[in-house]
Specification:
177 residues, 3-stranded antiparallel beta sheet, 3-stranded mixed beta sheet
């Protein structure tokens, strides 16, 4: 490789400099998809100093999603807000962090796939609750109580009856329909 990295046909991208010797002359040893296909990880070897390093390519999100809040205000979408809400709901539950990250990744992907520019907090909340129901029912109750802002124990009981009466999916079982 001559050190000139190319993007789309005929378009020259920025050089990849070796972090050790700052030379733009390397070869790609290995390429892998990671983070559910959203990132490409490349192992490179510098032809100047023979040391190896890793680079990551991510798709730049140009069309930012805007969240419409209940009070009518708008703010940029933030997956960190979803993660904080989910972590708070899980509290001291024994839910592995990897499962939470995977769930937030799924939510993030679905929202960006289904909505072009704007999404309401209601849509986000409903999606989070649907995912939490299968992950941890106690975490779902905690999240739902914040989301629905129950005014009485009866309202909470009604939601718990719906939760208890549903057909539960087995973890990692493929859906039939």
């Amino acid at each position: 490789m001559s050190g000139h990295h190319r993007g789309p046909v005929g378009v020259r991208s920025r050089p990849v400099l070796c972090p050790y010797c700052q030379i733009d002359n390397d070869k790609v040893i290995d390429s892998r998809s990671s983070e559910a296909g959203r990132v490409i990880r490349r192992r490179r070897e510098c032809l100047g100093c023979s040391r190896r390093f890793t680079t990551y390519e991510r798709v730049e999100q140009t069309a930012r999603l805007t969240v419409m809040k209940r009070d009518g205000t708008r703010q940029p979408f933030s997956r960190e807000n979803i993660m904080r809400g989910v972590q708070a709901s899980c509290g001291k539950r024994k839910v592995p962090e990897e499962r939470l990250v995977a769930m937030v990744d799924e939510i993030d992907d679905e929202l960006h796939r289904e909505f072009d520019r704007e999404v309401s907090t209601r849509e986000i909340g409903e999606l989070v609750m649907a995912k939490l129901k299968d992950l941890d029912e106690v975490a779902w109750v905690r999240f739902a109580s914040e989301y629905y802002k129950f005014k009485s124990v009866d309202e909470l009981k009604q939601q718990l009856e719906l939760l208890d009466g549903r057909v539960k999916d087995m973890k990692d079982q493929k859906r039939l329909f």
